[in-house]
Amino acid sequence: MQAFLKGTSISQWLLDIAEKENVKISNEGIAYLVKVSEGDLRKAITFLQSATRLTGGKEVMEKVITNISGLIPAETIDGIFAACQSGSFDKLEAVVKNLISEGHAATQLVNQVHVAILENDNLSDKQKSIVTEKLAEADKCLAVSADEHLQLISLCVTVMQQLIQNC
């Protein structure tokens, strides 16, 4: 069974480790590491170790942590939402193709879009539920090896439909 620590506890552990191992990382970097690791200290330590090796003694930055963790960069997620909000299928398709060609996992996009939709104050609860239902459908299809491109296009079209209702 996996135990999770509170955010402040994990932050303190990571700060102590960073200090003892002479790892250069800011408090903001530690906070980002806690967020990315989802409260899993082992995962956070592994990310910190990997980032430290990758930076070669330089300060561990959020971008390095993002790359190591497998998260899709916030700028990329913002680009997807911008394409959805544009109402242009051509822009949307180009962004999805680019996402796949960069090697990002479709399941990771599903997870991050889920968080972004829940945090979006411009969508009604009904709109959020429509997108969330589509997220669940895409997640299920991806789990049984459905085509990533088609699933992401379908998901993003649903997001587009809900976002352009607010314009």
UniProtKB/TrEMBL annotation:
Q: Which UniProt keywords apply?
A: ATP-binding, DNA replication, Nucleotide-binding, Nucleus
| Pfam family for this entry, one | RCF1-5-like_lid
Q: Does this UniProt record's set of keywords contain Nucleus?
A: yes
The protein's matches in Gene3D superfamilies, at most eight in alphabetical order, are given as: 1.10.8.60, 1.20.272.10
Query: Could you state one GO biological process linked to this protein?
Result: DNA-templated DNA replication
Q: Which GO terms describe its molecular function?
A: ATP binding; DNA binding; DNA clamp loader activity
Q: Where is the Replication factor C C-terminal domain?
A: 73-157
Q: Where in the cell is it found?
A: Nucleus
Q: Give an example GO cellular component term for this record.
A: nucleus
InterPro entries tied to this protein? DNA_pol3_clamp-load_cplx_C (IPR008921), DNA_Rep/Repair_Clamp_Loader (IPR050238), Rep_factorC_C (IPR013748), RFC_lid (IPR047854)
Family per record: Belongs to the activator 1 small subunits family.
- What this protein is called in its record is Replication factor C subunit 4
